[in-house]
Specification:
The chain is an alpha+beta fold. It contains six helices and five strands; from the N terminus they run αβββαααββαα. A five-stranded antiparallel sheet has the order 4-3-2-1-5. Strand 2 and strand 3 form a beta hairpin. Helix 2 packs parallel to helix 5 and helix 3 crosses helix 4.
Length: about 200
């Protein structure tokens, strides 16, 4: 039974990468909130990025390359992934990007990258805030292995440990409230020659 189960999982993994036979388009797409690891053919510094996906289309993929984060930033990033999963927060790329700009602009400055989608051959190594836990490949990265243990469905409590009630949009609501109450300090990010995600300003 195990070989059949493995075959089904591999078929699902491979099916997720297909975007049709349109000439010139990438054959892989990546899911926001997942963490992928693999070679990038056009690399200048990091040939095997560890990429948290912010946005992906057939041409470009916006990521946070976790290799560029220091220990405290990684710990902060991991805690927030855990909290989003634990309280089942509804979040999208725009909201998470604004959250980073407000709370940890150093991560955006140091680790935000834009890759050609068809030149990045990443494999899912952590489900992150998605529900794709069963589609993950093994990795030797200690941060990812520790994160995966924390966010595994079996490791997450079925209800909050404390008695505070969380809504599924609480994180988004707090970010919007903060944006309306005080302007975010203007921070510049290098414009990409590849283009921007639709929600970037």
């Amino acid at each position: 039974m195990a070989p059949l189960y493995s075959w089904i999982i591999n078929k699902i993994r491979n099916a997720r990468y297909s975007v049709g036979n349109t000439p010139g388009l990438a054959t892989r797409l990546y899911t926001f909130g997942g963490i992928y690891e693999g070679p990038y053919q056009n690399a200048k510094h990091d040939r095997t990025p560890l990429a948290w996906i912010q946005f992906s289309d057939p041409h470009i993929t916006h990521v946070i390359n976790l290799h560029y984060l220091d220990r405290s930033e990684l710990a902060w990033f991991g805690r927030n992934i855990y909290m989003i999963r634990k309280y089942q927060q509804a979040i999208d790329g725009r909201t998470f990007y604004n959250f980073l700009k407000q709370q940890k602009i150093s991560i955006v400055k140091k680790a935000y990258r834009v890759y050609h989608t068809n030149l990045f051959n990443g494999k899912l190594v952590s489900a992150g805030i998605t529900d794709m836990d069963k589609l993950c490949y093994n990795t030797r990265n200690p941060f990812i292995n520790e994160l995966n243990k924390k966010i595994a469905p079996s490791g997450l409590p079925t209800s909050p440990v404390n008695k505070v009630a969380y809504s599924s949009t609480e994180l988004s609501d707090r970010i919007i409230e903060a944006q309306n109450s005080r302007p975010i300090q203007q921070q510049t990010i290098k414009p990409s020659v590849f283009g921007k995600a639709p929600w970037m300003k």
